[in-house]
Structure formats: C-alpha cells, structure tokens
Amino acid sequence: MEKRVEAGEYHSKDFEWEFVKELVDNDPSLSHHLQHRDFSSASPDSKPWQDFHSRHFSGKFFKERRYLLKEFPELVSCGENSKLLEVGCGNGSTVLPILCGSKNITVYACDYSSEALIRTKENIDRSIATVDNYHSFYCDFTTSEFPNWMACDCCRDNFLLKQDCYHRGESEGVHVRYECSMNEKCIGGVDFVTLIFTLSAVPKERMPNAIKECFTVLKPGGLILFRDYGLYDMTMLRFEPEKLIGFREYVRSDGTLSYFFCLDTVRSLFINAGFIEVELEYCCVKAINRRKGKNMYRVWVHGKFQKPFLN
C-alpha cells in the first residue's frame, strides 16, 4: 500500500469573494466572462470524460480531497451502517479519503465514464488492503434514474407526491404525515449524497433533473454535500472567449464542460428540487505560484442541503 499523508491545515477564507469580483469587473480583458447573452449549449457526451480518465491513468492527476472530512464532519461522526452515494466519482479522489476516514459508511459510487470506475477501483486497491464497504456502478444521473435498489421503491415513487400533498396541506391548515407507503419504518435510501466537482460538468439545462434524481434516493433527513467551482475562480478566468458556450458555461479543449456557480444559482437549484438549505458559502483560497511570482485566487462553493422530514 502507498503511504498516505494526513490532511494539512486548510484555509477557506483567505479573501472575500467581493475582492475577486472587483478585480474582474475592473479588468477589460476579462469582460467576456460577464456577458449575459445566451449561446448554443454543447451536446453532452461521455467520450471526452472516457478519454480524460484514459490519459490520466496513473491516478496522480488529482490528489485525495482529505479536507472534505473537515468540511463535512458528518461523514466522520455518522452512525453505523450509514450509506453514501458519491455521484461522479472520477478517479476516486473523494471516495478514497471517505473510505479511509470513516469506517461506518458504505460507499456507493457511480460515474457515466466506465473508465473512471476502473481508475477509482485501481486507486482504492492501491491504497487500502481490503475493502468490503465500497460498490460502484455505471450511471448517467442527468438522463436516467439511479437503480431501484438505491432507495425504497415505494417511497421513491410516492415521496414527491407526498411532498406536494404536504405543502398543499400546510397552506390549507391541514397536517399531513409522511409515512413509507409500506406502513413500516423506511430503511431504504442513502444517508448522504456527495456532489463534489460533478454538477459543473453537467449541461446547465440538465442540472435541475439531476438534483431531483439525487433527492429521490436520499432518506428523509438525508444530506447532499456539495462542493464545486465558484464564480470568478481562477480556472474560469483562464478560459478564452471562444470557449464560452453559455452564461458562465465553458468547454475545454478536450470537450469536457465546466460551469461556475454563484450562491444564488446553487440555492435556487436545490431549493426548487425540494431541499432545505443548511449551509451555503464561498470558499476563497489564495495560493502563490512561486515560480511565476503570481497570486492565484481559487473560489469554490460549499453547500449542505437536507431532504426534509415530512411528519
């Protein structure tokens, strides 16, 4: 097994988001990032991601995201037999630290690149001697449902209907109780869904349905743990005008997509899918390129959203 290095000190408030916004607003060379007109969106395709993971076969392209255990302590303090669905596992940079840091969690990981699933398993096998709490499967959650075994089938079919009845009952002063339609304590579904730098790779018109699909497989009270690229992140500002294919949406030279979120967009997407906002903020990290003597301003969006209890 490879020796693992513990997570170092992690900063998330090195500067205020308004600081980098002002830099962009006042730099004419970056004005194309502020355009509000619509462009034709690229058609989603799994092949660019297949090729991406084939090129970066060593698993060294991404480092383990060990900071996630500090940012989402629920993953460490959760009870026995907890279940987590990692959506868009890539090469395992999120799955691996979770498996190493929390012995109570069973991790289900999916990706719509079969090559990514292979690389994730290779990296897990390289770092962990034996693992029996990890399972992977192929799925494009933007166009299809998660497998039925991810949730209580009855609740999956009826929860959104129950939720609608609940909200209508509240407006009419009638109390509506949510129960599993099997009239038993519901044990289906997962306790956590992690969306870590995944949603930004989804065409923006498919994001609402993708989040609703995550909603259906969470237990009532379950959490989505979200981390993705924030508006005016250094990566966004490196894109040239011809790479802009939609408002805040870009295509890389390898054909993969990248979207950059503001807090209001994230809030709207999750609230409209039925979630309750628990935490939502920018993480602003300053790094220094010592070779070039330049400051690098990284901006990410951190969020936690809960599926409501209806009782």
TrEMBL record:
<comment type="similarity">
    <text>Belongs to the methyltransferase superfamily. METL family.</text>
</comment>
<keyword id="KW-0489">Methyltransferase</keyword>
<dbReference type="InterPro" id="IPR029063">
    <property type="entry name" value="SAM-dependent_MTases_sf"/>
</dbReference>
<protein>
    <recommendedName>
        <fullName>tRNA N(3)-methylcytidine methyltransferase</fullName>
        <ecNumber>2.1.1.-</ecNumber>
    </recommendedName>
</protein>
<dbReference type="Pfam" id="PF13489">
    <property type="entry name" value="Methyltransf_23"/>
</dbReference>
<dbReference type="InterPro" id="IPR026113">
    <property type="entry name" value="METTL2/6/8-like"/>
</dbReference>
<dbReference type="GO" id="GO:0008757">
    <property type="term" value="F:S-adenosylmethionine-dependent methyltransferase activity"/>
</dbReference>
<dbReference type="GO" id="GO:0032259">
    <property type="term" value="P:methylation"/>
</dbReference>
<comment type="function">
    <text>S-adenosyl-L-methionine-dependent methyltransferase.</text>
</comment>
<keyword id="KW-0808">Transferase</keyword>
<dbReference type="GO" id="GO:0008173">
    <property type="term" value="F:RNA methyltransferase activity"/>
</dbReference>
